Amino acid sequence: MRFRFAALSLLVATAYAVSGAFAEQRPNLTGTWKLNLDQSKLSDGKPITYYTEFVQEIEHRDPSLRIVEKIKAPGSDRTVTWNLTTDGKETDADVSGSPGKISATWEGNQLVTRIAAENWKVVRTYTMGPDGKSITAAWVLEQEGDSVRATELWERQ
Question: FRET partner for 45 with CA separation of 20 to 30 A, picked from 15, 21, 87, 115?
């Protein structure tokens, strides 16, 4: 009986320690991040030409996440603010003047955001660099049966 209790206690302690280790792997994304347009590419290797400058200001106090996007693009500049949580809960969002939904979840140490409006959706996976000074974001845009993929490099400012 004593052996079973000790084995069960060890198993519970190990599970607790492992779950704590996984929780610690989740990076804090707080900071100002600028898209490196030279290092960011579409899946076919072409540059991302949608923007002339793109900055994200992130406030991250898990599970609370606020992303302010400051986008400069040919013919238009805009600022978009996303207030969400990392528990997967969908939040109503204004997506370029159309009603949409946004959510965020953790997949291991990667943050995954999902933004969807009437005819399209974007799934972006953020991975913090080992030095904490960069984020690689891979995204997929699906719109009316077509999809576009890209990899972005964000640098801490």
Answer: 115
Q: What token pair was written down for 82?
A: 């996303």
The tokens for 124 are: 């972006």
Cβ–Cβ under 8 Å, residues 137 and 125? yes
Q: How far apart are alpha carbons 155 and 152 in whole angstroms?
A: 10
Query: Which domains are present in the chain?
Result: 27-156 (2.40.128.20)
- The pTM for the full model equals 0.81
Task: Give which of 74, 80, 110, 75 is closest to 95, Cα–Cα.
Answer: 80
Question: Tens digit of pLDDT for each residue in 26-68?
Answer: 999 999 999 999 999 999 999 999 999 999 999 999 999 999 9
Length of the chain: 157
Give the Cα separation of 9 and 24 in Å (integer): 23
